[in-house]
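Example: non-specific serine/threonine protein kinase.
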Amino acid sequence: MCELQLRHITGDARARTFRERDCANQNGGGHKRKKLSEPEDGQQPAQAPENVELALREFWALSSIQSQHPNVIHLEECVLQRDGTVQRMLHGSSSALYLPLVETSLKGEIAFDPRSTYCLWFVMDFCDGGDMNEYILTRRPSRRTNTSFMLQLSSALAFLHKNQIIHRDLKPDNILVCKSRDGIDEPTLKVADFGLSKVCSSSGLNPEEPASVNKSFLSTACGTDFYMAPEVWEGHYTAKADIFALGVILWAMLERITITDTHTKKRLLGGYVQRGTQVVPVGQALLENPKMELLLPIKKKSMNRRMKQLLHQMLSVNPQERPDAFQLELRLIQIAFRDYTWET
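Written out as structure tokens, the predicted fold is:
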């Protein structure tokens, strides 16, 4: 289990872990990318409506989950702060603090006094092992770690899709690591950062029937380029886009394929297609050339035949050819426990 860090936002010194969603943070890229900052970094006013929306999306997604999963970050509590006023955040609240944020998100323009400082404090699991990039790229390749991480991530995704949540920004940066207490077991992964996620509503024909995330089409092209499915670039996609993103992550992890962040120069796990000197995201390359065959594995003994076949299906240009999250979880369990060797 992950430990809770002791911090307090007011005079009440309760056991909490605070990661602040600074509503003023902005992404300089073509797609919205959220940034979490520690409380010590300072608090800035929420001047960008899109960042208010990112914060609320994360709150709405995590608060919609009625149960917990060991591999999904758990929201214990959300606290809304405006200047010196602090209030517990409740979905559907009609409080004078909460409603202006909802109005800002819906209208796309600031609906509160811009001179005020708004901050959302998320009380959640404390993850002490950094993110998946840091963990994988600072250690020697390990079949045991790879297997553990694949099973954990597929289980997390099946849980999210069962709860009608499409993440839309799966990438190693958004997968946090909790170190094992004994140093023997593999660490626990936590899928986090739900600012771009979408909670699918109930079926239009039957309000009591949960929506199928694989039949709920979305049109907002969002995510991070190197993990985006071809159909996301076009703006017409379902939860199968999450399957594609996870396929890129697993492929990169198994073969230690890295890309370089142009801003930070940091090495990141991520698959790509090489065109001369140009590095092109897999989804973009498949959109431009749907008949292109991905040459994987790149390294001869990085995966067995079943894993190769599964990755090809996860990275298929046609979403219908990808397994859903529940099929994926089952197949990875079969690969992990029924294949005695990864060299065949």
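The radius of gyration is 20 Å.
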